[in-house]
Amino acid sequence: MRIIIFGAAGMVGSRTAVEALARGHEVTAVVRDPNRELPQGVGIEVGDAGDPAAAARLIEGHDAAVSAVRAPVGQEALQVDATAALLKGAAVSGVRLLIVGGAATLRVPDSGKAVLDDPRYIAEEWRAVAEASAAQHRRCIEEREADWTYLSPPAMLAPGARTGAYRLGRDDLLTDAAGISRISAEDLAVAIVDELEHPKHRRTRFTVAA
Ligand SMILES: NC(=O)c1ccc[n+]([C@@H]2O[C@H](COP(=O)([O-])OP(=O)(O)OC[C@H]3O[C@@H](n4cnc5c(N)ncnc54)[C@H](OP(=O)(O)O)[C@@H]3O)[C@@H](O)[C@H]2O)c1
Q1: Stretch 42-51: mean pLDDT, rounded?
Q2: Which residues line ligand 1 at a C-beta cut-off of 6 Å?
Q3: What does pTM read for this prediction?
Q4: Hey, which of 39, 105, 129, 201 would disulfide with 206, CB 3.0 to 4.6 Å?
Q5: Atom of ligand 1 nearest to the CA of 104
Q6: Cα 51 to ligand 1 centroid, rounded to whole Å
Q7: Best substitution site from 44, 57, 66, 69 to test ligand 1's pocket, by max atoms within 8 Å of Cβ?
Q8: What is the pLDDT of residues 161-204, one digit of tens each?
Q9: Per-residue pLDDT reduced to its tens digit, 74-102
């Protein structure tokens, strides 16, 4: 496949590039700053995910697109703008778009609340990011043209080991036997490329956890 990744220099984007390259896919990495460090073997394009015309031009000709963009702290609202621009670009080019979002709109099984409203998961300093990812998910649900998929990571996502194993879920937050909701960024990347290779969640949201 020809896969294009927006936010390719970031935690999730770079690991998705490495995973896709390791499986023999062709990867285009989109960065705003061409000096950003990127995995060996990617093609590099400079572009802003918030620009719909640039998004459509860059996505054109690929088999799938991934958004691993995170807006800078204090500018969380740009997350929704970038998502809207990428959805427009995906709709114009007819290419499938997988958006790596947040856990905010997942339902916490033991409280029935959304993660966003459960103080066990969202500390005050994370509220703006969580609200932006909730708005980002809503923007996808409203989308009528693009072929989108929204991935909600579990509560905790950080660099770690690639085990190749993960559990799949839909709208409920996944926790392990100890009540921990987590996955490594490496295994999230495995789940992303699996979904690109074998689409199971078109125009819907899914989640994963260790
Ligand atoms: N538990 C959770 O729910 C959880 C935890 C972590 C992350 N996430 C989500 O996972 C996704 C990826 O996050 P991450 O941790 O990998 O982020 P990250 O490491 O901060 O990387 C984000 C990348 O996006 C790029 N970017 C930002 N705005 C852009 C734009 N307009 N156009 C092009 N590139 C842009 C940044 O590049 P520059 O260097 O140019 O700024 C950066 O390289 C985000 O949606 C984030 O909210 C969710």
Answers
A1: 97
A2: 6-7, 9-13, 32-33, 36, 48-50, 68-71, 82, 100-103, 129, 133, 153, 155, 157
A3: 0.98
A4: 201
A5: 3
A6: 16
A7: 69
A8: 999 999 999 999 999 999 999 999 999 999 999 999 999 999 99
A9: 999 999 999 999 999 999 999 999 999 99
pLDDT digits 0-9 by tens, 128-154: 999 999 999 999 999 999 999 999 999
Query: What CATH number has the domain spanning 2-209?
Result: 3.40.50.720
**Backbone φ, ψ for residue 107 (5° rounding):** -90, 135
Residue nearest to atom 28 of ligand 1 (CA): 71
